[in-house]
Each structure stands twice: as structure tokens, then as C-alpha cells.
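We examine the record.

___
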Amino acid sequence: MWHYQAPLRDMRFVLQRVLQADQSWSRCLAFAELDLDTADAVLAEAGRFASEILQPLNGPADLQGCTLAADGSVRTPDGYRAAYQAFVEGGWPALPCDPAWGGQGLPLLVDAAMREMLSASNHGWTMYPDLLHGAYETIKAHADDALKARYLPKIASGEWLAAMALTEPQAGSDLGLLRTRAEPQPDGSLRVSGSKIFISGGEHDLTDNIVHLVLCRLPDAPPGTKGISLALVPKLLPDGTRNAMVCDGIEKKMGIKGSATCAMRYEAATGWLIGAPHRGLAAMFLMMNSARLHVGLQGLGHQEMATQNALRYAYERLQMRAARRPEGAAPAAADPIAWHPAMRHTLLRLQALTEAHRVIAYRAAQCIDEAHHQADDARRQRAAALAALLTPLVKASLTRQGFEAASAALQVFGGYGYTHDYGIEQTVRDARIAMVYEGTNEIQAIDLLTRKVLADGGSALGLLLDDLQAEAARCEAEPALADFGAALRAQCGRAREATAAVQAAVATDAEAPLRVADAYLLGLTHLLQAWAFAASARAAREDSDAAWAAAKTERMRYGLQWLLPESAAPWQQVCLAAQRTLPMLTLPG
């Protein structure tokens, strides 16, 4: 009953019609020869891998979980290792990597679509390769030539996997509190000592070697985040011997049980500095930003998986007569629950938001591509500013909706949804962690408002609003889409008003932006949803399949009419930033 069908038709629509990806690629020297047919072929094969190889492992792996042996080695669920070997043999880890290091040189946009499918089919398994691209980018940008030559080809190919070792028991979101030490050695290496927790893929049996990127402190490190360095600490040393690191345990978790979440101990383990001393956090942000996009795509994958399975079930489940039936429906004692208004609301909401969020996530990936590869310098800088603005929003908004969509889809299944056999309860459990790791959604909201909006005086936001207002004007020029354009223009106005209110409040109240950061992120999410609804409806008018285009437009108009009014509350909360304060908490008793 629970299965996955890759949404290739909608992916093609977003790439071709909404984002006009082929035109963007033509302006990037690295992608100038890529066409949409080639991208389609890549994604079709990725969809087959996701649905035929990964998805059948998902439920059994959730029941089996990972196993820690007495020697500290970790065994992943049955089938994981074979699936990963097939993934490497297919060349999938190298998809967006530079051909100079053995990569295929395809856009991150294509890689993002692939990762949506992987996450939808098997979130636990996807955790292992999801960190590869961030590790690759970090080493490529900051490591010396010797480290690049030794590690980049193996990471780009997927022969070796990577782990990101940030968190310590006393240092969760506040990395300035970390204590792991790194002692320089005469040969230029480091001896890294300390303990880390919640390390995804810190130990496993999918690859022989695992390259750990470890945040640590050198002996002369200043306190706080300005004293953090980054070390590359491999599981296997260049001579093939085991490094002095050990997995002390694996977490018993609510979800993603096929992913080994490890407590790691480094006992004077050999490592090498990446980047400049005390500048490790800046280097690690390359990996973290890549991971945040991937986590947002995990949320999108959960939305898609929950939506399509709930929709199939709602057409199979017969209950009562519907008050309104499709024209020509045969007489029956009971109708599909998909015909009842309560379920239509739930399913239309799931569809409209999933499709809108696909547009938003893919636009973020496209911006990252353009920031690195556009031939024109001004275009690169503009794209980089938009990518920085969109990344925290994609991470927070899509993971929130990934969990909410799974919960809403469970309601469609009724009591059956609460049982393991129907699949949706696992999606609810798996989806929840994405709101927490790689920077909690609250931290993403603070980052968005304080660092990406207020810090530059709203410059990047202004670029985004210019783009969105241009889309509003295009829709307003077509009478059938004028309501989309008007709604999008109104959302842009509310965003400007709310931003001005926070800018005014922060002058006398430093806590003001922190109080309303969550509401501000939610407001911008509604703004981008309004854009996705409008852009998709306009693009659908160019589609040759009239029936498909009409159904797409109906879903986008449902989002416009029924979902967008929810934006009123967060925008109002932000505009009242200066007038409303928060009481301090008191413990009970």
C-alpha cells in the first residue's frame, strides 16, 4: 500500500516553465551544454532508484535499526550497504561535483531534485550521503592542496563518506562552549581529543573510511566562537591503520532509525587543519549551509510522500455518501472519502503547499548555482545574496510543513494511520527531527531576520521583493491571473511594512527582532508561497496538456484563496514588535 512515485511531471514543470532553468544554465559556462531532456533522463533514473531500491528498505529498516558491536563498529539495517554500493556505482554522489575532482559537473538544482526523491523514499538511508556534498565543498574551498588531492576524489565519488562533528553535551546550538582540543604536532598534523554527540553517520559499515570534519580548539584559541578551528580527522589514516576514534554509543531515537546517530570519542586522533587557525566556523558554514538546503529537501520529500499516499488512500477508502459527487458518478452506497469536503480541504492543502514548496526549494538551489557559475559578476553577487536569504527560510519552512503534512496525512488514514503497516506513522516520526538538527528552526528564524535582513539594511530582501513584484506585474497583465498578481503585490507590501517596523523597534529594543523572528519567517514563507502560487498558475498557461494545466491552476488558486489568508496573523505580530513584550517565565511551585 505504501509506495513512492517520483513526481517527475511536476519537477519538469518547475524546471522548465516556472524557473526556466535551461535559460539560466545557458548563462553559466559550466552548464552551457546541459538541456532539459538530459536533466529529465537523470531525474527519471534517480526516481527509479528511489522507488525501486530505497523505498522497499524504509519500513523494514525502521523496525530493525542500527546495531552497535562491542568493538564500537556499527551495522546498518539489511540492504543499506548494497543500496549504497549501487548508489556509488551509478555515479550519484558525484552529480554536482567538479569534473576536476571526478564529479559530473551537473547543477545543484538537478541534485536537489534527486535528493528530494531520496529523502521521500528513505530518509534514514539518505542521511549517510546527504553530508557528502557539504564536506566536498568545505575541503575544496579551505583545505590545502595535499588534503584536497588525498580526500576530494574519494569523497566526490562516494567511495568514502563524511561526518560533521559539531555538537558536544554542553555545546548544542552554542558552539562557543565546545571543548574538544587539537594539539599541533611537529609534522604539521594535529592530535584531536574530545567527545561529540549526535554525529550522524559517525560510524557505519557503508564505506571503509569516514572523513570526520571536527570543530575543535587549538591551545592558543581565544574564547567563544572566534577560537574554533576545523580539523579533518579520518577513520582510516593514509597508511590504512585505524585512527584513535571510537563510537561510544548510538542513540535510540524517535525516527530515522536506519541512520546511525553516534556519540564519538577522539583520543588524540590524528587530523589536519582545514583553513586558517581559529577560523573553523566560517569554513564549516559551507558544510552547514549545504546541509540546511538538504534538510529542507528532506521536509519537501516528506510532504510529497505523505501527500501522494494520502491521496491514493482517500480514493480507495469508501465511507458514506458525499453531499456533492462528480458528474456522471455511478450510484453507490458509499463514496471515496476524497469526495467529502473535510478531506478535500486536507488533500488540496497538502498538494498546494507541496507544489509551492518545490518551487521555493528549487529556486534556492538555482540561486546557489548562479552564485557560483553565472558568467556575469553582478548576476553572481545578486544570486549569492538571494541564496543566503532563502537558505534559512527553506530549511525552517519546508521542515515545518514536512512534519505538519505528515500529521495531516495521518488523519486521512484515520485509525489505520496510527499503525505501522500503513507507513504514515513512520513518516510523522522521521519528519520531526528535521525541525531540530542543522540549526533548529528557531535559530533559522533568528538568522534570517537579524543576519540576512537587518544586517544589510534589507538590501537582499529588496532584491527578492523586486523579483516578486515583477511576477505580480506579469500576472496582473493577464485578466485570468489578476487575483494572483494582486495578492502577491499585497504580500510584498506587508513584508516591507513589517520589516520597517522591526527596523524601527530594534533601535530602542534589542530583543524586538528575537521576539518576532519566528513570525517574520512565517510571514516571508507566506510571501514566497504567494509567489509560487502565482508563478505556477502563470506558467501552467503555457503547458500543452490542458487538463493537467487546469488542475494545477485550481490547486494554486486553492492556495491563494484558502491558505494565503493565514498570513495576516504573523505579519500583524511582526508589525507590533515594538509594542508587545514577553513576560519572563517562572517555574511551577
Summary: The CA atoms of residues 491 and 527 lie 6 Å apart.
